[in-house]
Write a structure and sequence with these properties.
305 residues; Purple Acid Phosphatase, chain A, domain 2; 6-stranded mixed sheet; 9 helices; 14 strands; globular; binds fe (ii) ion
């Protein structure tokens, strides 16, 4: 099965009737990319591309870059790394960029304006799809500028549908209350929008918070877990969301946790991958997905800058 061959992927059983506690006990293999690895080219699954003048041509192929947790303006290095990521995307044939939140570090308008400035060329030439993270909700609530105030929205382009979910909430203004929320009403809206997606479309659900438990990374997350506080927990209703999208979705993209990870549900009808980008600016790397005819054409690859 194509989903199990890729390095670092971890396949788990069908999650029917599984609760969050069960997921938390599953073994998981996290794998931050090595920065000394050269930028990788996708390995073709079929000989349907041609090469001319050193440029690979992929007819009908649509490539998506997933980046996350930029935390613009927290450190000058982050802005520099993000510029290099944008340049790498502009030098590639990637057509769509999905940014799964924590774009800014303190949620200020100035930080978001810096993001807009860095991405001016990218937004002119490619589709850039944004959604907010908890840091974007911490001060000026610039999250409203990312999804026009909607909590759930659908973008369909070519053969790809991106269903965005804003999992931020008012208490994200409190520094350590960084956990996300999804309501029953939002789940109902997910249901409704899924029915509007044509068949043979590659469906991506994009959100900031992790729908399944992931290991704690920061001291505050460990402390939170020790005292049974909710700050480090996965998204409320995360399992319900996965049950709803099962059979209707190919890929879940998220961030929030800064160490990348992948989980695969190898459903016979429609495998589902949950992919965490980690912090693209600290990793100085992002993941690329190549989609053709409603399916992944190649194994996802890491691009380092
Ligand atoms: Fe973050
Ligand atoms: Fe976050």
């Amino acid at each position: 099965m194509r989903w199990t061959a890729h390095r670092g992927y971890h396949e788990i059983d069908h999650p029917d009737d599984a609760d969050d506690a069960k997921f938390s006990r599953l073994p998981r293999r996290d794998y931050p990319p090595r920065n000394d690895e050269p930028p990788s080219q996708p390995t073709p699954r079929s000989a349907h591309f041609s090469s001319g003048g050193g440029v690979l041509e992929y007819p009908h192929l649509h490539s998506v870059a997933h980046i996350s947790d930029l935390h613009i303006d927290s450190l000058p290095e982050r802005s520099l790394a993000f510029k290099e990521i944008c340049d790498a995307i502009l030098a590639s044939d990637i057509g769509t960029v999905i940014v799964t939140g924590d774009i800014t570090n303190r949620g200020s308008v100035a930080e978001f304006e810096e993001f807009l400035s860095i991405t001016s060329d990218l937004r002119r030439d490619r589709s850039v799809i944004l959604l907010p993270g908890n840091h974007d909700r911490s001060r000026a609530n610039i999250s409203n500028r990312m999804m026009d105030g909607a909590r759930v929205s659908l973008v369909i382009r070519d053969e790809i549908a991106v269903l965005r979910i804003d999992t931020t909430i008012w208490y994200n203004r409190i520094r350590f209350a960084s956990h996300g929320n999804i309501s029953s009403a939002m789940l109902n809206e997910v249901d409704r929008l899924l029915t509007q997606i044509p068949e043979n479309t590659f469906v991506i659900v994009a959100l900031h918070h992790h729908p399944l438990p992931l290991p704690a990374e920061l001291l505050i997350e460990h402390i939170s877990s020790w005292f049974s506080l909710p700050f480090a927990e996965n998204l409320s209703y995360g399992s319900r969301l996965l049950e709803k999208i099962k059979g209707h979705c190919d890929l879940v993209l998220h961030g929030h946790r800064h160490v990348p990870s992948e989980i695969i549900f190898p459903y016979a009808q429609r495998p589902l991958t949950i992919s965490n980008a980690g912090s693209s600016t600290s990793l100085r790397a992002f993941r690329r997905f190549d989609i053709e005819n409603g399916r992944l054409a190649y194994e996802p690859t890491w691009i380092s800058v």
